[in-house]
């Protein structure tokens, strides 16, 4: 068995792992990364990137369909559109392939050694990897577990046949006429909306009493309205029971306790993600856990010296940019730099239609934390750019501490607001006050102008409302 020794071993080449390895390589650390499938992890191969590609396809198709139906208010007409989903999926796969190659090139540039295979801990310093050419042992001074997450499978609704996970949904080459989505969270609503825009009849079954329970109802209101307009039926307080006897749909228990069968060509199950630790040999380590997730401290250290964990395997928020930031930090810690997790916010975006963004504290969270608040909200209905894009639904909201006027949180819902997350994140991270935001000139006409307007509203002198 060939043996490799290195200073840093990273297990898993998702956004957490590959960023950690690249930064470590840049810092001159002798680094090895092990990946059992494809470079880029869930995010690049079956998550963020492919889902946003298919969301784009759906948006373009809907625009064409609206023009064909004479539904645009500005007089655009066109012939009836047709969508070749096979070609759309091939286009999406091409983007993924380009990014896979890009990650490989970046790792090579940083002089990181890539080992393909499944890693398993033998002890806290030794890992065995089953590679195509046989087992290899890797000994390392520091090890980062970045093995990510996988879809939760419901025992009474296992994946297979018509029951699919997000990975299956992103590979469909034929549009399901009727799609039932179990779970009205991030994935269910992002993909459910996209399929509805492409023409599927979509139903969403959500166990809680509302969709996207992570966000407040003011933020989710415009999303619910749009789902209704798209003909999506949302059943809240409903439980999935299992497939129908013929396998042509889903049996559910509705909020009033009645059983109902929902006909479906595909049932998409999106009820959360679980950490990937099976086969990793965790039984050979002594790690403190948070349920099934690995417990970490403010330096992403686990309970064993020299072993770190980053990304989805450490629990919520399961976001690619969090995993990347943790990866970058851990590489610097291994290089001996003084780093700890000191971020004031992690932007969360839901790519529904309209999109939702939230950074820092919501009004409710800020109140619970004991703050006296000043809140300003500015509607896109009063923003010129939003009107010219035919996207007046939604608003920007700024939550600040009364007195100091320090901004504690920023939220928005509206078409295209995902791109505002950069400005929101910077404001929170830099400790901006309401005056800082109100006093920054924002170019006209842009959606971003709603941001200083919301800050001015909180200060009591919004200009355009
Ligand atoms: P992963 O990306 O899961 O990577 C882990 C890697 O480790 C995998 O490649 C796996 O093969 C490998 N691995 C596991 N075990 C082993 C082993 N024993 N040996 C070797 N290799 C191993 N997040 C966002 O921020 N924005 C989005 O828009 C977004 N959209 C999403 C859409 C969908 C449909 C899904 C499913 C997820 C989405 N996410 C999004 C979440 C995002 O994908 C994850 O937060 C992110 O991928 C986590 O990165 P990670 O590095 O922790 O793990
Ligand atoms: P989620 O936690 O966002 O949503 C799951 C939903 O399923 C919840 O609303 C929950 O109440 C519901 N649910 C749970 N069990 C159920 C049941 N038996 N029947 C009906 N409903 C049930 O999970 P997800 O949508 O699977 O996404 C997983 C993770 O991926 C998220 O935590 C998120 O961090 C990440 N993600 C992020 C993005 C993004 O950043 N835009 C996009 C997709 C996924």
- Rg (C-alpha, Å): 24 Å
Counted by DSSP, the helix tally is 13
Number of separate strands? 24
Main pleated sheet:
7 strands, mixed
Number of domains: 3
Helical content stands at 25-40%
Please identify the structural class as seen in this structure: alpha/beta
**CATH-assigned fold name of the largest domain:** FAD/NAD(P)-binding domain
Low-confidence spans: none
CATH superfamily (homologous) name of the largest domain: FAD/NAD(P)-binding domain
CATH classification, class level of the largest domain: Alpha Beta
3D shape? globular
Structure explained in plain terms:
There is one protein chain. The radius of gyration is 24 Å and the shape is globular. By secondary structure, the chain is of the alpha/beta class. A hairpin with a 5-residue loop joins strand 23 and strand 24. The chain has helices at residues 15-26, 41-46, 48-68, 85-109, 166-169, 186-198, 217-229, 320-334, 363-368, 384-388, 421-429, 434-438, 450-459; strands at 2-11, 31-35, 113-116, 118-123, 126-131, 134-145, 149-151, 163-164, 178-182, 201-206, 233-236, 239-243, 249-253, 259-263, 266-269, 273-275, 289-290, 293-294, 307-309, 348-350, 355-360, 373-379, 395-401, 407-414. The chain has three domains: 2-46 and 89-150 and 274-341, FAD/NAD(P)-binding domain; 163-271, 3-Layer(bba) Sandwich (FAD/NAD(P)-binding domain), CATH 3.50.50; 345-459, Enolase-like, domain 1, CATH 3.30.390.30. Strands 1, 2, 3, 4, 5, 6 and 19 form a seven-stranded mixed sheet that branches. The protein has a five-stranded parallel sheet with strand order 8-15-9-10-11. The chain has a five-stranded antiparallel sheet with strand order 20-21-24-23-22, with helices on both faces. Nicotinamide-adenine-dinucleotide (NAD) binds at residues 154, 182-188, 190, 205-208, 213, 239-240, 270-273, 316-319, 349-351.
């Amino acid at each position: 068995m060939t043996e490799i020794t290195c200073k840093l071993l990273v297990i898993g080449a998702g956004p957490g792992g590959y960023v950690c390895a690249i930064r470590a390589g840049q810092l001159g650390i002798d680094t090895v990364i092990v990946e059992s499938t494809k470079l880029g992890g869930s995010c690049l191969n079956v998550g963020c990137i492919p889902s946003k590609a298919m969301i784009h396809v759906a948006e373009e198709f809907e625009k064409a369909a609206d023009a064909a139906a004479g539904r645009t208010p500005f007089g655009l007409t066109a012939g009836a559109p047709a969508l070749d989903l096979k070609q759309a999926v091939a286009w999406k796969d091409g983007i993924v392939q380009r990014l896979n190659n890009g990650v490989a090139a970046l790792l090579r540039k940083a002089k990181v050694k890539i080992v393909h295979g499944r890693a398993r801990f033998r002890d806290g310093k030794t890992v065995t990897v089953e590679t195509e050419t046989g087992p290899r042992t890797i000994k390392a001074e520091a090890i980062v577990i970045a093995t990510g997450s996988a879809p939760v499978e419901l025992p009474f609704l296992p994946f297979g046949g018509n029951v699919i996970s997000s990975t299956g949904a992103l590979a469909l080459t034929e549009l399901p006429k009727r799609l039932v989505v179990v779970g009205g969270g991030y994935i269910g609503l992002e993909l459910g909306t996209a399929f509805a825009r492409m023409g599927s009849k979509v139903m969403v079954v959500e166990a809680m009493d509302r969709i996207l329970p992570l966000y407040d109802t003011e933020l989710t209101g415009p999303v619910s309205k749009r789902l209704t307009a798209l003909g999506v039926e949302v059943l809240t307080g409903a439980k999935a029971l299992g497939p129908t006897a013929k396998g042509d749909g889903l049996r559910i228990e509705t909020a009033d306790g009645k059983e109902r069968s929902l006909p479906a060509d595909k049932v998409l199950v999106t009820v959360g993600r679980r950490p990937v630790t099976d086969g990793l040999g965790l039984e050979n380590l002594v790690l403190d856990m948070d349920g099934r997730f690995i417990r970490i401290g403010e330096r992403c250290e686990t309970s064993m010296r020299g072993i770190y964990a980053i990304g989805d395997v450490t629990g919520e928020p399961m976001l690619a940019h969090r995993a990347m930031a943790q990866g970058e930090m851990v590489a610097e810690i291994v290089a001996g730099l003084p780093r700890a997790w000191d971020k004031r916010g992690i932007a969360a975006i839901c790519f529904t239609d309209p999109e939702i963004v939230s950074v820092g504290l919501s009004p409710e969270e800020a109140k619970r934390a004991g703050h006296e608040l000043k809140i300003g909200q500015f509607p896109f209905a009063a923003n010129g750019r939003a009107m010219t894009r035919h996207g007046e639904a939604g608003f920007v909201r700024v939550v600040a501490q009364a007195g100091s006027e320090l901004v504690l949180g920023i939220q928005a819902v509206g078409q295209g607001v995902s791109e505002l997350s950069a400005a929101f994140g910077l404001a929170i991270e830099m400790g901006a006050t309401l005056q800082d935001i109100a006093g920054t000139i924002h170019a006209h006409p842009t959606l971003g102008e709603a941001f200083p307007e919301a800050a001015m509203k909180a200060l009591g002198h919004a200009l355009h409302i």
